[in-house]
Every structure is written in structure tokens, then in C-alpha cells.
């Protein structure tokens, strides 16, 4: 095909992408706008007199929240992997009796609205002292990722040739060693995908954070932002600066692991 | 492309049971041959953490939720632990509430309109990105951005853009001579506004899935059609659309289940207001339980359970369709 | 094989237990206070004051006076209400809590608070209108740490330009006339917070009460007239559409842009107002027919939650007393810049130091507790209906009369339960 045509399509693609990403651009633009210019009408399309006030505010107020979010994200990844990888193996390769109903339950589990889970957790955490703790939030956040993780691991591990497992058994490896030294290394990609999603979901969770961890010392970044909005301030530059900072992990993951993201979405959505 | 954990699209029995397959019949023929001492106890041991987890973190919260909805948990009852059993009273109150028909209608509109546009736009974009052009991969990657951002980030961005007095959207409208629109404060518009934001959020997901689905349609079908003199439109309707059907159905149903649950975006943009104008079942439940200074867990739990029932119905439809496509 | 199986089972189970144990560890850290301990816990809603702040030092000093050490934890206001409720259920309540005043009766109703009589704390010096928020069924459950309320701030530059003399604003008619003058002169008249939350109710109440309405009957003609006033302002462009989503902070930020003639806001903005880029002043919010409208009181109460170990109450009482002496109240007012003392002695002492606050002292004296009229624990439910009605009317979803009628029906249903 001629080059001219392909450039024409690139043009359309650029326009579409620009339209799609305008809100993201706007977020960045506002984050650099001076408070005094925020209420200008019409608003400035470009921060001609940029300020770093928003970012200063983030760095001085939001850093602990970012730390908490990081901790929660990593904790959620850990819990999710620890629970879902062995379960995926059992479902895929160990011919577990009752695998069908279990898979069905996992599917149904994904349909339960977050609010409902949050209320249940609230009632339970209230009595067990898990309210307002990082641990409590990790466990709650992991419920978003565990069913997905199990189903993804099951799908992937079913594709591992049985010969591999057989060979290990012949060499005298027990089920645990087989799992650890054969299955897990082979499943690296799906583990990355699961981790990535578990992390992103935990990082961006708002419902559990806002219900189970409203107060005090351990607030994740989503609540840091919400605090600004909740006070309903028009300090949009600080809000947006926080938003930009909060989006950094997503941006990094997008660059580093785009392949896994795409794989994860499709795996979550499309079944063979 | 290197290995994707899961293949997309056309049925590939050799890949074994996949994510979400209700009954991944134990990998057939081949695994039957191999007997490496599969012991149910070993299998159970591997799955035990999951089962314990499901019981503690799903079954128990769900049970507590049902319990909440059958009692009258006032703040006082919460402290004293003596909530009165009221049977289905909370459900009666929920169904009888003026908010109920509004929330139900809003939920339906929010879900259906969101999905229709997300899917439609996603499909158009997927078809577009199937073309070969420079920067294709980069631009497709950029399209993922909105989906990866924390929801609260997107929601606050949209609410700032839609601000009546100094939002960028109204300024743009002013340039072409349109009077300011009260996106987030007009009872007639506010639902449309949150739907717009939600559509924007859902496009990347639909694009990625549908694009992968398109990739699985063999190129030679199109070539053959070209030889037969089919134009682009005919190719879309005769080849793309029918072959994409299974993927589409599942994308839509999954979208339904996820959209039903949406709280964050609506809550952050409008808190369901003004009045009940943008209240859905999910935000209603959230508001009752956590949204005011006066937690009302019992009605909130009742609303939540109604929502579960609705989600379950779609869930079963989803399973049925999936079973059918698998056959 | 068996050995291997056992080991692998244990390994899997072990990992799971580890995960749970790890979580369990981080769960510790309530604020329970064991019997006989000389550490006393105080919770307050002032996270902006860290451990090195004057406020924290004052609390510590009161602990020293009472011969104990104090462990202070700060929560944000709404969390503190929930936290106190939960702690009451778990039996891990703090010894002294500074609670937002509308929450006091809700918590008292659960039986989680001691009444001041039984503790032996004398509350007779406190202005009855300020103490009102802590009274349920004739018993007093707390002591105000200070009080604040609402008034009308104005932008003097804008009023001068429009030829409005703030002294002529005596009732609603003159206020609206002033807004119209400001508006025809090219500025925006007024901004306020109609946000769907307690703040919305808080801001609406001076108008609601100023019309002579009562929270026990939300759909009275007086109530309708108050809501109509607000709605007309928005419809006539005297107030911006954004008031529907404005919080008190937002309205203040709007006011600081120098674009608004008036703003409804509180004592706590006094310092900020004096630093504005234009000249400011404030007047009390007028009632419909003239005179000062009763504005709602804001501010925290010191409460003493019930404990298993009743021997602790003596020290808790000393701590509360230490904070509520005349000198203590003035210190609190200084520390926060926005708390007017709750006793006449304290108010006089404050005025000696800060004569410019006299308008605010008067406003606080005229103010009314939100939970007074014996609404008690019903107040939050009624308030929710009030701000919902405000939302419905301002957004044009309903007329003020319809909105309030629905609110009354909903409030009646919620409170009779």
C-alpha cells in the first residue's frame, strides 16, 4: 500500500488518541497551574506560568500515603500469589474432585459488588480489630484479585505439558517440589500478569479504602486524593498533582509490561 | 508476539480449560494416560488455602451481609450488639422507597448506555487499529492509559473538566457560543455526565479485547472476500461481525457485571446527586452504609443483596452463553 | 510418599498461616487502656496539630497536672465519630474524646458516654445554648471545648463599588436587594455551601431558623420560604450554580477570588479574611423579618466514654476540667483562632485580648445547638433530609415546597423507626 495512505491513517490515529487522552493531558495541565489561575475563565490550555506548588503539596503531604499504597499493593500481590498459584495448579493438573463447582464459585465471586463485600468486611473487622490496618486492607483488596488469579493460573497451567510433570515425578520430586521447581518457573508470565493486576487493583482501590481504613495513620493514596476532594476544595492543582503522582505506577507498568496488561485483560474477558 | 498466557478468540481445545470455564473437565485424553500418583489429598492441600480464603473472605462477609439485612442495625444496636431481628422488613422498605425505582432505572440506563457506547466505540477503534500504519502500536498502547489510571484520578479529572463555572468543557462550548451547561448539578444531565466519563473509562478494555479477537480472524478470509469484490463494509458485516460474535458477547456480559458494580466514579463525581438524580443501586447502598455521618447498614445490605441477585442473573446468562459457544 | 505429602501439605498450609499471621500482627494497636494504668488516652479531630503543636502540649500539660501521661491520637472528624462508636462496642474507648457536637447525642444514646452529673463535673457556668448540643433527655453528656458559628463575610471593595452599605442589610429583603446591586454592578452576589452533607445543613440552618422554621417540621411555610430564598438566589444568578456542590472550603476559596460580594462562612476564617487581597468585613446573618438569625453552633465537645474500670473517671474529669477553665478556654481560642469560649467568663477574658472578635462572641451567644429541641440521636437523620431537600430545590429537580414535603415524610419515617 502506498505510504500516503498509511500516513493519512496515522493522522486519524493521532487525532483519536489526542481526543482520548485529553482528560489525561488536562490533569497534567491543571497540576502545573497556579491556584490564582485555576478559576480563570476560559481556563488556560497550557500552563504558561507553571507552578510546582501542587507537587510541593504532594511531596509534603502525600508521601506517606504513597508509601502505604505501595505496601498495600505489594502485600496484595503476595497474598494473591500465595493463594492462587497452588490453587491454580490443583485445578489445572491435580484432577481435584469438585473442581467444577469451585471454578463456578470463583466466577460468581467476581460478580459480588465491592460495596457488599465492604459491608461484610466492616462488620467483621469491627470485631477483630482489623479496621484501619494495612493488613486488613491487604486482605480486602486481595479479594478483588484472587478469583482472577486462580482462574488465570488454572488456564495457563492447563497448557503445561504433562510430560514435564511426569519427568519430575520420575526424578523423584514430590508434588510440592514439582510445583515449586517446575510449574512455578514455567508459569512466570502468568504470575507477572496476576501480580500486575493485583497491584493495580489494590493501588487504585477506593471502596475498601474508604470504608475499612478511613482514619488515622494508614491511608492509601486514593484516600489522600479523596481527602482533597472530600473537603471539596478547589485546590485542583494539588489534587491533580497527586493524581499525576498516583498514576506513575500505572504509567511505568504500561511501559514495562504492556504485553502482560493486554494479555491479562483478554484473559480476564475472553475464554477459550 | 511471544507467549500470551491465554489465547484469545477461537476455541482451542488443546489449550485446556481456560479462565472462567465453569467446568474445566480434567484435561482430557492426555492427562488420563499419565498417572503420576495423583492423590486427592495432595490436590486438596494445594487448594486448601484457597478454600479457607473463600470461606473466610467471601462466605463470611456474605453471611454477615445477609445477617445485617435481616436485622435493624442502628448505631445504638451496633454498640450494644442487640440488633433486633426484623425479617424482610428492610427489603420491604427498600422496595417501597422512592429511591428504589429511580436507582433501578438509573442503574439500567447507566449500564446499558455505557456498555453500548463502550462496545461500539471500542469495536470501531479495534477495526481501525487493524489497519497497518505507522505508530499503530504506540497509539494503541496510549489508548490503554485511561484504563490503568486509578478510578479516583479519572473521576476527579472529569469532575474538574465538567465544573459548571470554570470547567474546560463549558469554556470550549462558550467558544462556539453555547451557554454553560450544568453537567454535574442539573438533575436532567448529571446521569449523562457520569455515563460519558464511564464510557471513556471502558473504551480501552473493549478495544484491547476486541482487537485481540480481530487478530484471530484469519487474514485469508478477507483476501478471499477482496477477490470476490467485497467492499470494506461488506467485509465487516460478513466476516468480522459474525466471527467476532463469541468474543463480543462475552465482552458485553463481562462489562455488564462490572458496570453494575460501579461506585467510585459516580460517587466521586456526584455522590449520586443532586437528590437521587445519579443514584444507582450500588451508590445507594454505599451512601446508606458509609456516605453519611449516620451509618445505616441494614438497608444498605438489603440494597447490596438485591444488586447481587441482579448480577447473578447476568452471571448465569454469561455462563449459558459461554457453554453454548464452547459446544 | 507419605512424608513428602505431609511436608508439601505443611508447606502450603504454612505459607497461608504465615500470611494470616503477618496480617494479624499489623492488626494490633487499639487504644485500650488497662486498669490502673497511668497512661490516659485522648482522641481529637485535629490531625493538623501534630505532637509538637501548642494544642498537643496543652493536652500533655493537663495530663501532668492530673498526674498521668496522656497518649493523644488525632482522627479526621467523621472518622472519629465512627471510631468512637466502634470503640464503644469493643470496649476500647479512649478516656477523653473531643467529639463534633452533633455526634454527642448519637453516641450518648448508645449508652457509650457518661453524663457529667454522674462524673461530678459542674457544667452550670456554660452558656445553655452552647451546652444544648450535649443534652439528651435532660442529662448533659459533654463540655464544649469552645464554639464557633456562621456569619456573612463581605468584600468591602465590591460593596463600595456597588454602593451597598453593609449596615443597611437588616433582613432578607435588604440582603437580596444588596445582592442585586452587586450583581448589576458586574460581580457575583453571594456564595454558600449547599453541598450534600452535614455542611449543607449547617449552612442552611441560619436561614431555616431565621425564617422561624423548626427541625421537627421540615415542610412548614417558614421552611419553604427559607429554601425559596436560596433557590431564587441561584435561579436569578445572584449565587453561582456551583453552590450545589460547594463545601465551606470551596465557598471560601471562591470568595477569596475577589469576585463575590458576600459569603456565608465561619469564625475559623477570621485570620484568612484579614489576609485577603481586598478589604473584608462581617455581619451576622439576618433573620427573615430582621434581627440576627440563630446560627448553628459548631465545635467539639469533650466527652468521657464509659469504661469498665470506673476508677479512671476521676482523672478523666481532671483532664476535662483543666481544658475547660477560663484560662484554658482562652488558650484554646488562641490556639485555634476560631473557638469562642463557652462560658461568659471565658468570653470576657477573650475580648480583653481580642476586642475585634466581639461580633463573633455575640453570634455565638445567639447561636443554637443543632441537636437541641431534643432531637438528639434523630438529628443526623433529619439533617440528611434537610440537605437532600436543599439539593433537590437548588438543582431544580423539585420546587422548594415539594422538596421539603418529601424531606419531612422521609424524616418522619426515619425517626419513628
From TrEMBL, chain A:
Family matches, as CDD domains: TM_PBP2
UniProtKB keywords: Cell membrane, Membrane, Transmembrane, Transmembrane helix, Transport
GO CC term, one of those recorded: plasma membrane
GO biological process assignments: transmembrane transport
Keyword Transmembrane: yes
InterPro entries listed in its UniProt record: BP-dep_ABC_trans_perm (IPR050901), MetI-like (IPR000515), MetI-like_sf (IPR035906)
Keyword Signal applies: no
Superkingdom, natural source: Bacteria
Main localisation: membrane
Limits of the ABC transmembrane type-1 domain: 66-257
Chain coiled-coil ranges: none
Membrane association type: Multi-pass membrane protein
UniProt subcellular location: Cell membrane
Stretches that traverse the bilayer: 7-28, 70-92, 104-125, 137-160, 181-203, 236-257
Family: Belongs to the binding-protein-dependent transport system permease family.
Protein name as annotated: Carbohydrate ABC transporter permease
Lineage: Bacteria, Bacillati, Actinomycetota, Actinomycetes, Micrococcales
From TrEMBL, chain B:
UniProt key word rRNA-binding: no
Signal sequence region: none
Keyword presence, Transport: yes
InterPro entries: MetI-like, MetI-like_sf
Subcellular location: Cell membrane
Keywords in alphabetical order: Cell membrane, Membrane, Transmembrane, Transmembrane helix, Transport
Annotated membrane topology: Multi-pass membrane protein
Pfam families: BPD_transp_1
Top-rank lineage group of the source organism: Bacteria
Residue segments, region Disordered: 11-33
Residue ranges of every copy of the ABC transmembrane type-1 domain listed in the record: 104-318
TM segment ranges: 41-60, 108-129, 141-161, 189-211, 247-269, 300-319
PANTHER family reported for this sequence: BLR7065 PROTEIN (PTHR43005), SPERMIDINE_PUTRESCINE TRANSPORT SYSTEM PERMEASE PROTEIN (PTHR43005:SF1)
Family from the record: Belongs to the binding-protein-dependent transport system permease family.
Protein name per its UniProtKB record: Sugar ABC transporter permease
Lineage: Bacteria, Bacillati, Actinomycetota, Actinomycetes, Micrococcales
UniProtKB/TrEMBL annotation, chain C:
Record-linked Gene3D superfamilies: Periplasmic binding protein-like II
Position of the signal peptide: 1-21
Record InterPro entries: SBP
Key word Signal present: yes
Keywords: Signal, Transport
Highest taxon, organism lineage: Bacteria
Pfam families: SBP_bac_8
Similarity comment: family membership: Belongs to the bacterial solute-binding protein 1 family.
The protein's name: Extracellular solute-binding protein
Amino acid at each position: 500500500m502506498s505510504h500516503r495512505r498509511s500516513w493519512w491513517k496515522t493522522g486519524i490515529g493521532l487525532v483519536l488518541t489526542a481526543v482520548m487522552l485529553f482528560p489525561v493531558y488536562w490533569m497534567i495541565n491543571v497540576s502545573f497551574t497556579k491556584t490564582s489561575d485555576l478559576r480563570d475563565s476560559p481556563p488556560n490550555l497550557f500552563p504558561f506560568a507553571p507552578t510546582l506548588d501542587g507537587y510541593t503539596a504532594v511531596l509534603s503531604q502525600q508521601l506517606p500515603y504513597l508509601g502505604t499504597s505501595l505496601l498495600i499493593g505489594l502485600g496484595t500481590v503476595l497474598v494473591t500469589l500465595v493463594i492462587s498459584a497452588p490453587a491454580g495448579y490443583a485445578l489445572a493438573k491435580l484432577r481435584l474432585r469438585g473442581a467444577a463447582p469451585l471454578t463456578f464459585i470463583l466466577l460468581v465471586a467476581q460478580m459480588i459488588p465491592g460495596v457488599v463485600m465492604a459491608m461484610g468486611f466492616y462488620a467483621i473487622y469491627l470485631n477483630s480489630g482489623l479496621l484501619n490496618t494495612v493488613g486488613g486492607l491487604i486482605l480486602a483488596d486481595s479479594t478483588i484479585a484472587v478469583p482472577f488469579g486462580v482462574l488465570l493460573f488454572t488456564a495457563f497451567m492447563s497448557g503445561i505439558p504433562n510430560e514435564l510433570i511426569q519427568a519430575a515425578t520420575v526424578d523423584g520430586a514430590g508434588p510440592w517440589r514439582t510445583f515449586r521447581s517446575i510449574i512455578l518457573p514455567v508459569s512466570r508470565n502468568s504470575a507477572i500478569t496476576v501480580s500486575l493486576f493485583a497491584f493495580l487493583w489494590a493501588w487504585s482501590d477506593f471502596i475498601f479504602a474508604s470504608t475499612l481504613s478511613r482514619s488515622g495513620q494508614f491511608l492509601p493514596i486514593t484516600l489522600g486524593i479523596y481527602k482533597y476532594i472530600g473537603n471539596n476544595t478547589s485546590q485542583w492543582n494539588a489534587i491533580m498533582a497527586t493524581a499525576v503522582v498516583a498514576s506513575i505506577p500505572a504509567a511505568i507498568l504500561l511501559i514495562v509490561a504492556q504485553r502482560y496488561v493486554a494479555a491479562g485483560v483478554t484473559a480476564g474477558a475472553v475464554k477459550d | 508476539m511471544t507467549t500470551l498466557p491465554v489465547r484469545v478468540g477461537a476455541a482451542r481445545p488443546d489449550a485446556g480449560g481456560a479462565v472462567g470455564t465453569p467446568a474445566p473437565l480434567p484435561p482430557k485424553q492426555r492427562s488420563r494416560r499419565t498417572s503420576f500418583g495423583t492423590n486427592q489429598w495432595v490436590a486438596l492441600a494445594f487448594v486448601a488455602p484457597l478454600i479457607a480464603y473463600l470461606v473466610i473472605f467471601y462466605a463470611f462477609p456474605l453471611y454477615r451481609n445477609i445477617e445485617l439485612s435481616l436485622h435493624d442495625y442502628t448505631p445504638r444496636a451496633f454498640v450494644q450488639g442487640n440488633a433486633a431481628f426484623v425479617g424482610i422488613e428492610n427489603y420491604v422498605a427498600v422496595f417501597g422507597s422512592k429511591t428504589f425505582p429511580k436507582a433501578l432505572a438509573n442503574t439500567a440506563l447507566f449500564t446499558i448506555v455505557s456498555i453500548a457506547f463502550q462496545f461500539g466505540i471500542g469495536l470501531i477503534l479495534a477495526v481501525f487499529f487493524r489497519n497497518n500504519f505507522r505508530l499503530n502500536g504506540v497509539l494503541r498502547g496510549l489508548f490503554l492509559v485511561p484504563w490503568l489510571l486509578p478510578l479516583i484520578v479519572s473521576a476527579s479529572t472529569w469532575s474538574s473538566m465538567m465544573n459548571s463555572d470554570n470547567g474546560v468543557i463549558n469554556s470550549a462550548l462558550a467558544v462556539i457560543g453555547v451557554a454553560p451547561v450544568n453537567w454535574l448539578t442539573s438533575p436532567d444531565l448529571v446521569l449523562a455526565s457520569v455515563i460519558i466519563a464511564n464510557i471513556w473509562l471502558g473504551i480501552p478494555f473493549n478495544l484491547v479485547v476486541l482487537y485481540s479477537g480481530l487478530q484471530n480472524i484469519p487474514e485469508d478470509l478477507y483476501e478471499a472476500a477482496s477477490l470476490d469484490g467485497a467492499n470494506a463494509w461488506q467485509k465487516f458485516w460478513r466476516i468480522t461481525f459474525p466471527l467476532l460474535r463469541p468474543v463480543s458477547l462475552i465482552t458485553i456480559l463481562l462489562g455488564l457485571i462490572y458496570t453494575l458494580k460501579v461506585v467510585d466514579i459516580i460517587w466521586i463525581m456526584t455522590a449520586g446527586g443532586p437528590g437521587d438524580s445519579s443514584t444507582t443501586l450500588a451508590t445507594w447502598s454505599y451512601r446508606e452504609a458509609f456516605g453519611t455521618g449516620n451509618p445505616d447498614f441494614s438497608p444498605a445490605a438489603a440494597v447490596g443483596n438485591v444488586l447481587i441477585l441482579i448480577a447473578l442473573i447476568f452471571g448465569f446468562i454469561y455462563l449459558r452463553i459461554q457453554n453454548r459457544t464452547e459446544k | 510418599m507419605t512424608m513428602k505429602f505431609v511436608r508439601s501439605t505443611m508447606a502450603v498450609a504454612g505459607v497461608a498461616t504465615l500470611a494470616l499471621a503477618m496480617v494479624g500482627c499489623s492488626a494490633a494497636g487499639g487504644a485500650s487502656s488497662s486498669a490502673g494504668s497511668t497512661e490516659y488516652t485522648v482522641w481529637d479531630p485535629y490531625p493538623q496539630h501534630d505532637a509538637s503543636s501548642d494544642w498537643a502540649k496543652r493536652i500533655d500539660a493537663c495530663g501532668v497536672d492530673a498526674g498521668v501521661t496522656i497518649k493523644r491520637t488525632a482522627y479526621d472528624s467523621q472518622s472519629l465519630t465512627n471510631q468512637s462508636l466502634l470503640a464503644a462496642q469493643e470496649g476500647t474507648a479512649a478516656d477523653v474524646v473531643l467529639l463534633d457536637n452533633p455526634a454527642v447525642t448519637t453516641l450518648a444514646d448508645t449508652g457509650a458516654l457518661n453524663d457529667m452529673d454522674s462524673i461530678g463535673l459542674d457544667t452550670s457556668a456554660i452558656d445553655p445554648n452552647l451546652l444544648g448540643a450535649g443534652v439528651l433527655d435532660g442529662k448533659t453528656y459533654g463540655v464544649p471545648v469552645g464554639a464557633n458559628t456562621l456569619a456573612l463575610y463581605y468584600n468591602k471593595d465590591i460593596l463600595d463599588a456597588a454602593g451597598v452599605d453593609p449596615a443597611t442589610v437588616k433582613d432578607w429583603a435588604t440582603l437580596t436587594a444588596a445582592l442585586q446591586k452587586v450583581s448589576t454592578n458586574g460581580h457575583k452576589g453571594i456564595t454558600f455551601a449547599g453541598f450534600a452533607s452535614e455542611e449543607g445543613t449547617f449552612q442552611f440552618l441560619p436561614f431555616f431558623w431565621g425564617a422561624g422554621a423548626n427541625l421537627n417540621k421540615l415542610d412548614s411555610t417558614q421552611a419553604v420560604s427559607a429554601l425559596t430564598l436560596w433557590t431564587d438566589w441561584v435561579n436569578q444568578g445572584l449565587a453561582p450554580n456551583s453552590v450545589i456542590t460547594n463545601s465551606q472550603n470551596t465557598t471560601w476559596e471562591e470568595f477569596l477570588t475577589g469576585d463575590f460580594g458576600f459569603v456565608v462562612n465561619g469564625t475559623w476564617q477570621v485570620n484568612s479574611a484579614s489576609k485577603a487581597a481586598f478589604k473584608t468585613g462581617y455581619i451576622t446573618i439576618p433573620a427573615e423579618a430582621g434581627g440576627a438569625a440563630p446560627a448553628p453552633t459548631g465545635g467539639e465537645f469533650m466527652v468521657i466514654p464509659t469504661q469498665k474500670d470506673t476508677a479512671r473517671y476521676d482523672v478523666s474529669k481532671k483532664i476535662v476540667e483543666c481544658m475547660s477553665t477560663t484560662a484554658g478556654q482562652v488558650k484554646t481560642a488562641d490556639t485555634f483562632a476560631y473557638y469562642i469560649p463557652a462560658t461568659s467568663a471565658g468570653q470576657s477574658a477573650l475580648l480583653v485580648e481580642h476586642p475585634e472578635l466581639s461580633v463573633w462572641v455575640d453570634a455565638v451567644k445567639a447561636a443554637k445547638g443543632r441537636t437541641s429541641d431534643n432531637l438528639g440521636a434523630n438529628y443526623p437523620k433529619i439533617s440528611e433530609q434537610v440537605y437532600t431537600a436543599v439539593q433537590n430545590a437548588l438543582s431544580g429537580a423539585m420546587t422548594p415546597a415539594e422538596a421539603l414535603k418529601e424531606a419531612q415524610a422521609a424524616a418522619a419515617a426515619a425517626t419513628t423507626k
